[in-house]
């Protein structure tokens, strides 16, 4: 119990360390947006300015440049429709419902993005409920939103999170998940335990979330290197993560099929041999080696060598149908990881030992 609590605390502290720059960006940017809108623009209550900083920067991962566009246009749409209708029909419950419905309907017709629609609706609510009598015009509120958006982008550029830390953390999550699935499947084969194989399959089915988080993190990292002068000279380093993105996704998909076939193979008359588990572990270790080399900013040559050694191995003899499929998935997985190290598909495929069809048996698809 105490160990699990310690692990949870370390995980939370690690997450806080990753998000701390974004928190600082939000805090400093919100304060600056408020000051600029009051002192330079002369707006007495520019609440849209700090709000737009928080929406544009956020503390999560996403496309901030697109957020700015959606925010400003969404706020402008909501404010415009809200001002127009409130000045015509007044404010109240049914007026609020009408204003929100129209603003969000127009937003959906123009752009179905969730942020765009939400900003249009929420801006219309603020205009209809909170601000109809404050004397501020729609143009002032649109200027506040634009001010906050610009300051939010400036905060990201001048107080940037490390794009490599973000990408490395989330790619590590993907490769850790891949390694865990392979280790569990290997253990199931060694112990001839279908229950362990079922656990590996369940683990494999939860891995897509890690891939999606890595893809979002990579987009954020690329965006930071695009807009932050502090990281312009390091864009080439991030290219290794871009190279690995699609292949590691494919590798996890192959791992899911592999774990499902492992479960099937353990129910056959001729279960897969222990030699197959050994190969799985070698691929698992190569995935972790790839993680370490990329995190260190190095060309993943050691991981590539380990994978090439696996690719050159002969297929174990005496395999059943499902075991043959496991071999096929392992070979595909090795090709995926070789591509993640920077090899092209043709070279990675050519590194595999040619397979001869077992006599009287067709190769599974």
UniProtKB/TrEMBL annotation:
Alphabetical keyword list: Coiled coil, Membrane, Transmembrane, Transmembrane helix
InterPro entries linked to this entry: Memb_transporter_dom
Main location: membrane
Domain Integral membrane bound transporter stretches: 33-154
Cellular compartments per GO CC: membrane
Signal peptide residue numbers: none
Annotated localization: Membrane
Residues forming coiled coils: 175-217
Membrane-spanning intervals of the chain: 12-37, 43-61, 68-90, 96-118
Topology in membrane: Multi-pass membrane protein
Protein name: Uncharacterized membrane protein YgaE, UPF0421/DUF939 family
């Amino acid at each position: 119990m105490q160990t699990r609590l310690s692990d949870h605390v370390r995980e939370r502290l690690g997450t806080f360390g990753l998000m701390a720059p974004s928190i600082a960006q939000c805090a400093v940017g919100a304060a600056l947006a408020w000051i600029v809108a009051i002192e330079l623009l002369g707006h007495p209550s520019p609440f849209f300015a700090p709000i737009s900083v928080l929406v544009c920067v956020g503390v999560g991962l996403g496309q901030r440049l697109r957020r700015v566009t959606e925010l400003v246009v969404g706020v402008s749409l909501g404010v415009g429709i809200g001002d127009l209708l409130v000045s015509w029909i007044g404010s109240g419950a049914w007026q609020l419902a009408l204003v929100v419905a129209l603003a969000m309907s127009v937003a959906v017709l123009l752009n179905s993005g969730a942020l765009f629609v939400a900003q249009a609706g929420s801006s219309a609510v603020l205009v209809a409920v909170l601000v109809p009598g404050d004397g501020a015009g729609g143009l002032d509120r649109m200027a506040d939103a634009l001010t906050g958006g610009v300051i939010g982008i400036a905060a990201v550029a001048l107080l940037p999170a490390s794009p490599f830390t973000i990408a490395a953390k989330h790619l590590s999550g993907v490769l850790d998940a891949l390694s865990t699935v392979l280790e569990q499947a290997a253990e199931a084969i060694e112990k001839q335990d279908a229950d362990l194989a079922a656990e590996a399959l369940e683990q494999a089915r939860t891995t897509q979330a890690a891939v999606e988080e890595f893809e979002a993190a990579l987009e954020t990292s690329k965006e930071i290197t695009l807009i932050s002068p502090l990281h312009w000279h390091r864009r080439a380093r991030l290219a290794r993560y871009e190279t690995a993105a699609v292949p590691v996704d494919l590798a996890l998909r192959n791992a899911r099929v592999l774990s499902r076939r492992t479960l099937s193979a353990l129910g056959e008359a001729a279960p897969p041999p222990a030699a197959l588990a050994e190969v799985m572990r070698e691929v698992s270790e190569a995935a972790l080696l790839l993680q370490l080399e990329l995190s260190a900013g190095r060309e993943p040559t050691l991981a590539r060598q380990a994978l090439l050694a696996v690719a050159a191995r002969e297929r174990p003899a005496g395999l059943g149908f499902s075991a043959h499929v496991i071999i096929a998935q392992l070979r595909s997985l090795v090709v995926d990881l070789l591509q993640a190290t920077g090899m092209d598909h043709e070279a990675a495929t050519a590194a595999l030992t040619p397979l001869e069809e077992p006599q009287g048996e067709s190769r599974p698809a």
